[in-house]
Amino acid sequence: MKNYKVNFKESTIEITNKAFERAASEYGSEAYKELNKVRKDNPGFKVVVIENKRKASPKSIKGLTYERMEKYIVAHDEDGSILTEFKARRAKDGLADVTGKTYSYGSNKAWFLEKFPEIKDYVENLSSHTSVA
Q1: What is the pLDDT of residues 52-109, one digit of tens each?
Q2: What one-character DSSP code corresponds to residue 117?
Q3: What is the CA radius of gyration of the chain?
Q4: Against a cut of 0.90, is the pTM above it?
Q5: What string of DSSP letters covers 28-41?
Q6: Three-state SS for 7?
Q7: Within its chain, how far is the Cα of 100 from the centroid?
């Protein structure tokens, strides 16, 4: 299990394991020695603790299917640009788009929620109805 990572871009040593953080705070422990070795190898780097943020489960917004995403986009996309981008991203669910990049359902869902943050309320209303308008 990795306990930390060195982020050269941000000039940080990121502790990613809570148990390692506790152990490294004890003077003379193996974790303490390991962290100090990494600090000596990377002078000037700041040590930061990365909180473990659980990713939202796909079930966190029940009923958010591709069909419902598309219907919502059609109803709220004035110039059609978002729908065009959505169809390119979807590209048969995982097949490459024209740029060669593939998108999973999860990344398409995240993109959709970024474009339409109000959708969470919309989906809650949908789940209380049995049919989709």
Answers
A1: 665 544 446 777 888 988 998 999 988 989 998 888 888 755 555 556 677 888 888 8
A2: T
A3: 22
A4: no
A5: TSHHHHHHHHHHHH
A6: strand
A7: 21
